[in-house]
Amino acid sequence: xxxxxxxxxxxxxxxxxxxxxxxxxxxxxxxxxxxxxxxxxxxxxxxxxxxxxxxxxxxxxxxxxxxxxxxxxxxxxxxxxxxxxxxxxxxxxxxxxxxxxxxxxxxxxxxxxxxxxxxxxxxxxxxxxxxxxxxxxxxxxxxxxxxxxxxxxxxxxxxxxxxxxxxxxxxxxxxxxxxxxxxxxxxxxxxxxxxxxxxxxxxxxxxxxxxxxxxxxxxxxxxxxxxxxxxxxxxxxxxxxxxxxxxxxxxxxxxxxxxxxxxxxxxxxxxxxxxxxxxxxxxxxxxxxxxxxxxxxxxxxxxxxxxxxxxxxxxxxxxxxxxxxxxxxxxxxxxxxxxxxxxxxxxxxxxxxxxxxxxxxxxxxxxxxxxxxxxxxxxxxxxxxxxxxxxxxxxxxxxxxxxxxxxxxxxxxxxxxxxxxxxxxxxxxxxxxxxxxxxxxxxxxxxxxxxxxxxxxxxxxxxxxxxxxxxxxxxxxxxxxxxxxxxxxxxxxxxxxxxxxxxxxxxxxxxxxxxxxxxxxxxxxxxxxxxxxxxxxxxxxxxxxxxxxxxxxxxxxxxxxxxxxxxxxxxxxxxxxxxxxxxxxxxxxxxxxxxxxxxxxxxxxxxxxxxxxxxxxxxxxxxxxxxxxxxxxxxxxxxxxxxxxxxxxxxxxxxxxxxxxxxxxxxxxxxxxxxxxxxxxxxxxxxxxxxxxxxxxxxxxxxxxxxxxxxxxxxxxxxxxxxxxxxxxx
Length: 730
Hints:
By secondary structure, the protein is mainly alpha-helical. Helix content is 63%, strand content 3%.
């Protein structure tokens, strides 16, 4: 805002300048509020005196006070009066209001060269620096302004904002409190104080400040948003939702409130709504990197890994130094089996911040994926030392070793954490971890109680299991890939013997079979390759019996082989151990007739119990309810019975998990022979094979075969009555 012009000031003399009396008359008219008259008179004078800077200056003041655009007048004033600090300062202030921060700063700095201690100019220059992302430089200017006028609430508030941006919330809070002594009813300052207190972890005090701000100005959306953040910090997420929704009711395009609401809804398990909100934030402000990172988090939770990775990359393109996005991208890469890239991302973050907890935790998981459990354990312990409340580290410790009754400190801390109000995913993880602990120490009732709690909480994640949908899918598959269709399969479709598919229920021994085969020097274990669900969907879209669908089959062969051959290196066999491919054994055989399929079978109750007790990343909702599990298992039996009847014997080998455990060498030799390779004794030392395994069985497949997992269901027999009818099905 242009400064008022003191009437006693004598203007400098310019060519064709007006008389001092004329200038003084214009100034008096300004002071009397006769703004329109001043505007008309100065415009008339400028027709005959266009180079008189003081007239331009008076015109600019009249325009500003009328709420009119004065930028042209201010620019002309500064051009004609280059040594007038006030003219330069007024122009800088106007440019700042227009959002032209760099130009504003240039003029304000020139004004300060002429008049170094003008408080208003110092404050405007500091504001411009903050707007340019240079908060560190702004602090000194605010402090200089306060030396001249120490009790100005606006300046104290702005200095507090700069300190908050610099990660100094305690100092910021002190300045906000000082500002409130000057402006006790300023809602914005109360709001800012609440934000600083929240960052200090003083959530109750932060809530009080936010509520005071709302009482003073109910339409202050930022205060409602900050209230939501503080409530979420206390774990009161449902109440936080109300705060964010009120902020959005006041301003539907508030991208911070959209992001915060999306995050808390994701923590409450409402992933679809969270995804919509984060997507809207990206549409509204695509240049804000946080929006892309939050969208990536929602996509990741929905298992849309490639899309999540793309969102994280967009965030990093906008802000290369963004550790959260870098770690989250590495997490998505790990889930896609791209371990080397994931580790590189972690190490890049740790090179800048060696104590970055999320990066340390992910690096520990990557060590565990490679079977380096001691290194992983040491990193998890370091994470807990840095942050004793980091729940995922407690969960990971149980997943990578057998717990004992000596782990009392772990138990005490995990139970204490579970008593807190945690995000839903953290509650679920701790319940599974406690179930694993009690199972390891043979307290089976306590274990089942925690497993049940984990599964009941997991049910809050979106829609449940659709039994009819699976039945209809199984019927369509069986009807299309019947015996007649299987007899018509031509080897000419593809002659490749590269892929080997290991199928079965989850937890039926598919990871063990892969580890045994991948220990052969001519075999590469690719883990779980996602392909055949979408391949079948493409065929159905064209019409399963149509000529277009038939033309797609060779394309599917080329696409799949292109994907796995890139992983194989010099290996002549690649193992794809996606268990759910049991649905698509017929399509696989029709597409790749020379491929071999190994079907792992395990006792139905041991299988279902193991599924129920595992915190899966990518298994369907059937896993969280024993009745649903029984239904899913029944459909699995129906479709695999169908394949047994229609697939040629040379395409399918069925391996009993219990038989493999009891006679490892016999069944290992059968599998190696079945996939067309010579026997290699390294297959018997599978637990020593160095390779990446990211499935839930990563620890088990690094142990020697033992029989403790056989008949485990009997420890929980009284809890498994809804599964009893499955006995005899395999």
